[in-house]
Amino acid sequence: MLRAWSADRVRSAERDLMAGLEEGELMARAAQGLAEVCSARLHQRGGTRVVVLAGPGNNGADALYAAAHLADEGFACVAVQGDWPLAVGEPAAWLAAGVPVLSGDDDWATPLSEADLVLDGVLGIGGRPGLPAEAVAWVDAVPPDAYVVAVDLPSGQDPAGEQAQDGGVYADETVTFAVAKPVHVLPATESAVGRLTVVDIGLELEGPADVERLDFADVADLWPVPHASDDKYSRGVLGVVAGGEDYTGAPVLCCTAAVGAGLGMLRYVGTPAPTGLVRAAVPEVVIGDGRVQAWVVGPGLDTTSRARGSKAQLDVARAALASDLPVLVDAGGLDLVKGRREAPTLLTPHAGELARLLSRLDPDAGETTREQVTGAPLAHARRAASLTGATVLLKGATTLVVPPEGTVRSQADAPAWTATAGAGDVLAGVCGALLAAGLSPLDAGSLGALVHGVAADRANPGGPVRALALAHAVPGTVAHLLTR
Ligand SMILES: NC(=O)C1=CN([C@@H]2O[C@H](COP(=O)(O)OP(=O)(O)OC[C@H]3O[C@@H](n4cnc5c(N)ncnc54)[C@H](O)[C@@H]3O)[C@@H](O)[C@H]2O)[C@@H](O)CC1
Ligand SMILES: [K+]
After folding, report:
1. Is residue 59 located within the same domain as residue 83?
2. pLDDT digits (tens, 9 = 90+) for 345-361
3. Ligand 2 centroid to 57 CA: how many Å?
4. For the chain, how many structural domains are there in total?
5. 99-154 pLDDT, tens digit each
6. Which ligand sits closest to the CA of 61?
7. Which long-range contacts (CB under 8 A, 24 or more apart) does 94-103 make?
8. Could you tell me if the CB of 122 is within 6 A of ligand 1?
9. What range does the domain containing 74 cover?
């Protein structure tokens, strides 16, 4: 599992560690690790020229010390700094160490245009979102074929990973120290991070992390593998209330994925047209209401439909929500959420659905737009979790799973091809199966998101994937992850 800790938690751990070390020791370790990564990338790419963008704080100092190591190795290094004093040393001292430091008045544009590797040391965990004015021109002038290594985090991005930021550095690789930080794994900022490399500086953090990311090894720990003594009821029965006369595909996708994820038994509640299709596609299904261990309510569900069978179907959906059973609420089912639910609940909106839900449940806060949600995804998911008592899984390239309290999970396992109609119905089926097996909404949501993303990749590695192929890839993906 990858764990990320906030800047405050990292700073306080650093203070404790530094008390027992010589001054400058931690920064020396950070710079050494950073230089090793840069040296390896330069060798791999056949590059020789390095330009450091040096900011006013210790992040700039890390980058300058790393450049001094690289200059020692024979790489040609130049730094550019703005209208601020350097955090450590004087330009003359850096020149003596092999790193000439240019000011904004010097010609920094020529060396930057020729750089093979750009070391972004403008801002680190002390940064506020946005770049210093001088640095905007530097970042704009970074040549497209240079390899950009961000020191600790891509400058200009929000270190807390809360707010999406226009502009700022987009790195090919981010070299961070000791542990990952929220900026590296949260949806508002993760796309700017590139490859993430964590350098050991001898700093350990304890206690719960602020953000966790499950990796493949966690699947074996969390997945509900049946025992010899299990039967179909003990493994988990899932009820799916989904689809309608106009939306017939969603229940087929959801039920196919749920059965493929390893349910004991599946019940489906729908109107006549999708019921026929589900029967044909998923012969394992039992049609109609009955005893279950968890419900999925909502894929392809039209709560305003007056078609034959709709009223009875909606009665089952409402009863599921009123029950004390775990419920996953997706798509149309979100319109049935009226407020807090005490039983385990997993809401699985995308950004537009979350905006609509918040606008309806919290009218005093005014209308919430999709853009507001994508600009600050974690804050909006948290608000929905606190209004409903549910765990909120916010779908996206990086999927957030936010419980009402405690550590957040963030998964980014899916190729961009997964952004396709029906993929959400498959996710609901996989997560629903995990809820029925007894997993918490947090585990079911994050594990389901991981398996869903890996299944999308395995369905057609490197190419387009349709939702039905993704659903069919689920059983093989689970086997692959459990037996690797
Ligand atoms: N504390 C430690 O022991 C270690 C810290 N390290 C490095 O230190 C960094 C943190 O250093 P600092 O706390 O000096 O913080 P930064 O280097 O992130 O910079 C903070 C400075 O930038 C200014 N600033 C912040 N946001 C700005 C904005 N948007 N526009 C203009 N100016 C802005 C602040 O006023 C402050 O002067 C880490 O990211 C890491 O690179 C590493 O050397 C490892 C050890
Ligand atoms: K940086």
Report:
1. yes
2. 999 999 999 999 999 99
3. 10
4. 2
5. 999 998 999 999 999 999 999 999 999 999 999 999 999 999 999 999 999 999 99
6. 1
7. 94/64, 94/68, 97/68, 97/71, 98/67, 98/68, 98/71, 98/72, 99/52, 99/64, 99/67, 99/68, 99/71, 101/54, 101/64, 102/78
8. no
9. 2-213
